[in-house]
Amino acid sequence: MNPASPEPAVSIKTGARPRLSAKAERFTESVIREMTRLALKHGAVNLSQGFPDFPAPAEIKRAAQEAISADINQYAITWGGKKFRDAIAEKFERDSGVPVDPEREITVCCGSTEAMMSSMMAIINPGDEVVVFEPFYENYGPDAILSGATPRFVKLRAPDWSIDLDELAAAFGPSTKAIILNTPNNPTGKVFERRELEAIRDLCHRWNAFAITDEIYEHMLYDGAKHISMASIDGMHDRTITINALSKTYSVTGWRVGWAIAPPDVTAAIRKVHDFLTVGAAAPLQEAGVTALKFPQSYYDTLAHEYAHRRDRLLGILAQAGFRCFKPRGAYYIMTDISAFGFPDDVAFAKYLVTEIGVAAVPGSSFYEDPADGRTHLRFTFCKTEKTFQAAAERLAKIRA
Ligand SMILES: Cc1ncc(COP(=O)(O)O)c(C=O)c1O
């Protein structure tokens, strides 16, 4: 070979250079979103993806319409409209007791999905690891891959989804950049307790790591469970990135408005990533978000009360159909054990349910790194109306027939 004209490492002509990015090849399409498509195709009752099938509050729909009529139709400030950031800061302080500077500590994003991605891209360097509790909301896997982090999984153990603190400690080390926490938790319904958050705090301090905490289900709490924001734990304000959104609390998952609350230096990095990824979230919907965030406490009490009723309704339907259920203390999902049905695995059973019975649910394997760990689980959501529950009950009754 002539050193003056070296062959390119990979020849374009021969097609040996990969056409697609190695990162994109490392994860599959979302199983949750795929189940929704299957539900539509087979006319199934959709208890898979977590979006309400009941209306959003009239006041915020009106506020969105008025914002569009008032011509709030151009780019908002890239990191979020001022009134909206002020409202986020006020609500966060009211709920968690933690003061936030809306000028330097908040980035409004396109849903909590983008807030998580931008946050991870803002702090991760090659070689960094992130600790993730498993089962996990399926986005966290691709989030880690896309940001370049190596995930280290720590099991939440059924039936109460408890943590083995030794296992958790063993997952931390000099390469740990962050732990991703989701409380109340999807898919398990676990609500992390103060002692658990303090144990995580101690590890974050020991290894100089961040906590990225997804608190999108903060208002869906049952049986006296209390939500504690990680940022309110002593010594965590300066190393916590709190992710949240309008999506679940105000039943507007299609609006795509979320945010990240983080210390000023971290926020500066998140804002840059966010700006070049998306420029900004929908301006009129941020305006409507101001109305939402100013709702009185009674709105949240009613929300939790109504969801408790829906949870009990779906628990009853599933138990009647032969599922073993893990009773959630928060969020709006029920993890079930499907061993009794004798199917080879969760995917086979989910396919049978959607095609033969007419009910869509999410295979447990999509919440685990190793699919084998989720093969006896199926997740159902209960953010649905009575009409949907009634239809699901009738169809699920056929399983046993
Ligand atoms: C834990 C968790 N985080 C984030 C999201 C997505 O939120 P958003 O619609 O705000 O992007 C979901 C949606 O199901 C979720 O369950």
Task: Present the secondary structure layout.
Layout: H1 22-25, H2 31-42, E1 45-46, H3 58-69, H4 82-96, E2 106-109, H5 111-123, E3 129-134, H6 140-147, E4 150-157, E5 162-163, H7 165-171, E6 176-182, H8 194-206, E7 210-214, E8 240-245, E9 258-261, H9 264-278, H10 283-293, H11 297-320, E10 324-326, E11 333-337, H12 346-357, E12 359-360, E13 362-363, E14 377-381, H13 386-396
This protein binds pyridoxal-5'-phosphate.
Protein described:
Residues 1-9 have low confidence and may be disordered. The chain has 13 helices and 14 strands. With 401 residues, the chain is α/β, with parallel strands linked by helices. The longest helix is centred in the C-terminal third of the chain and has 24 residues, at 297-320. The radius of gyration is 22 Å and the shape is globular. The strands form three sheets. The chain has an eight-stranded mixed beta sheet, with helices on both faces. Strands 10-11-14-13 form a four-stranded antiparallel beta sheet. A two-stranded parallel ribbon has the order 1-12. β4 and β5 form a beta hairpin. The protein binds pyridoxal-5'-phosphate. Pyridoxal-5'-phosphate is lined by residues 50, 111-113, 137, 182, 186, 214, 216, 245, 247, 253, 258.
